[in-house]
Amino acid sequence: MSLLATWCILLLASRSRLWTASNDSPYKSSVPWSGSICTVIPSADGSDDAPAIISAFEQCGQDGSVLFLNKTYHIESVMKTTGLNNVTVDLQGTLLWSTDTSYWRSNSLQLGYQNQTTAWIFGGNDITFMGHGYGTFDGQGQIWYDLGQNISNLAGRPISLTIANTTNSVFSGIRFVQSQFWSTAITHSENLILEDIYVNSTSNSTWSTINTDGSDTFYSNNITFLRWSITNGDDSIAPKANSSNILIQDSIFYGGNGVAIGSIGQYLNAFEFIENLTAERIICYECQFVGYIKTWTGIQQGYPPNGGGGGIGYAKNIAFRDFVAINTRQAIAQITQCTSYIGLTGGCDTSKFQISNITWGPGVGNTVTSYLAQLQCSAAAPCPDINLVGNFGLIGTNGTERQITCSNVVDPAFPCTGSAE
Ligand SMILES: *[C@@H]1O[C@H](CO)[C@@H](O)[C@H](O)[C@H]1NC(C)=O
Ligand SMILES: *[C@@H]1O[C@H](CO)[C@@H](O)[C@H](O)[C@H]1NC(C)=O
Ligand SMILES: *[C@@H]1O[C@H](CO)[C@@H](O)[C@H](O)[C@H]1NC(C)=O
Ligand SMILES: *[C@@H]1O[C@H](CO)[C@@H](O)[C@H](O)[C@H]1NC(C)=O
Ligand SMILES: *[C@@H]1O[C@H](CO)[C@@H](O)[C@H](O)[C@H]1NC(C)=O
Ligand SMILES: *[C@@H]1O[C@H](CO)[C@@H](O)[C@H](O)[C@H]1NC(C)=O
Ligand SMILES: *[C@@H]1O[C@H](CO)[C@@H](O)[C@H](O)[C@H]1NC(C)=O
Ligand SMILES: *[C@@H]1O[C@H](CO)[C@@H](O)[C@H](O)[C@H]1NC(C)=O
Ligand SMILES: *[C@@H]1O[C@H](CO)[C@@H](O)[C@H](O)[C@H]1NC(C)=O
Ligand SMILES: *[C@@H]1O[C@H](CO)[C@@H](O)[C@H](O)[C@H]1NC(C)=O
Ligand SMILES: *[C@@H]1O[C@H](CO)[C@@H](O)[C@H](O)[C@H]1NC(C)=O
Ligand SMILES: *[C@@H]1O[C@H](CO)[C@@H](O)[C@H](O)[C@H]1NC(C)=O
Q1: Number of domains present in the structure of the chain
Q2: Which GO terms describe its cellular component (predicted)?
Q3: 326 in a domain, yes or no?
Q4: Chain segment 147-195, per-residue pLDDT in tens
Q5: In a mutational test of the pocket of ligand 12, which residue from 327, 367, 368 has the highest number of ligand atoms less than 8 Å from its CB?
Q6: Which ligand is nearest to the CA of 207?
Q7: pTM of the prediction?
């Protein structure tokens, strides 16, 4: 294969869009370009750039590179770019998603779990996707926060980027601002590193940034999150069904829920698991929790995304360690097996989903409540091997009370001060 780049010149007949690149292009990059290179030129009139992006991946998605200039690209339609192999994606500019919520609600692509949908399904093997700390996904999410009006899982509200069926790949230096819904989902994937990622979804209205999770994983193994900065109003990172060997390191979360294991157990009689997760050296600033685990009850009520229950399986070998938790809004550690259809309560002792071997600590910081931990395990599946290192002696509460509530925790090595609801 020639070492010289094969410049990719495409004439998109349908749109008369010429993509071009030349050897004296002002475009500079540290990327080790090789193979076919497609430079996506944004439309001059601000029209939809998605067809050009899809074509670039079709042309250069095997042993090639796809380059985005330091320009704004308008994304007005869904994208599916899968089956890529040995490709470098260099994002120097901004991908700006349109605010046509009716279009997105009827056209977003199915994620294949919880009825969730996405604006872009992306995947393949041996991919390097670089944003250099400035390549940006801008979901223009404020319109979604205002449309959602604090309602969870508005149907068709799209995940910005879904990494699907992807192996042996690295995503680095990407910024996700004002995400429409979850910033990223990772599904059916293995051996990924996602590093130096910035997420910030902040609402300027009375409506919250509910569902703006930083990243959710499903059916995925060996996924490493390094140096994420996440500002949002929901789960910071949420490993869900069949997530294993997940490492989250050296990250800072502002205002979200912390590392949220689950929810899981949402599908009647489905066996799902979460195994081997370490979250270490996390700074959690005004998070609701540092680490928490939530399962649906054992009684199915309604259907996903907002209903369900009755799932089986296990979550085990999970550690949240070396954290700094500042002004934690509820508790450092939480387990709940009470999740059920919105507005419904009860059934907290019915889940057969087995939680075991979970460790929080060592860590320092404080909560602004009287709670250090709230550990509510189901009577149908009590939780063994639950550990709070040093009884959270280096963590303060607001006041003199230091509550650790427990239900169905097997032989706790720490003092339970009451029962957990
Ligand atoms: C990846 O693509 C480049 C450019 O075509 C090629 O030089 C290299 O050998 C490919 N690597 C693999 C593992 O195929
Ligand atoms: C991108 O372009 C803008 C203005 O056109 C400039 O301010 C900015 O420094 C450029 N960014 C990079 C990383 O080159
Ligand atoms: C699933 O999503 C579709 C469209 O996205 C929506 O019409 C339907 O109500 C959703 N189902 C549930 C149970 O929320
Ligand atoms: C990923 O692979 C799974 C299993 O083969 C398949 O069910 C799913 O449709 C694929 N997803 C995408 C987005 O291609
Ligand atoms: C996990 O993924 C990383 C990054 O892709 C890779 O280097 C490592 O070998 C994988 N680990 C295993 C056990 O496959
Ligand atoms: C997140 O965005 C908001 C609003 O633009 C800004 O005030 C805040 O400083 C940002 N947070 C971080 C950590 O960059
Ligand atoms: C909130 O953000 C939206 C989208 O950026 C903007 O149009 C609107 O003017 C902002 N409202 C306020 C009150 O700042
Ligand atoms: C929406 O939820 C946020 C966060 O919980 C809350 O502060 C805000 O008051 C709610 N807005 C309305 C109008 O209820
Ligand atoms: C999840 O993992 C379990 C245990 O390996 C397996 O039985 C189940 O089929 C997996 N679920 C899916 C949808 O792949
Ligand atoms: C979890 O880690 C243990 C110990 O390293 C290993 O034996 C086990 O296979 C791992 N589980 C999965 C699902 O990879
Ligand atoms: C408990 O989980 C930790 C990882 O957090 C693992 O190292 C240890 O081997 C597990 N213990 C058992 C008994 O499996
Ligand atoms: C801390 O406790 C004091 C006294 O009970 C109370 O007035 C205050 O609102 C609490 N602060 C927070 C942030 O919960």
Answers
A1: 1
A2: extracellular region
A3: yes
A4: 999 999 999 999 999 999 999 999 999 999 999 999 999 999 999 999 9
A5: 368
A6: 8
A7: 0.94
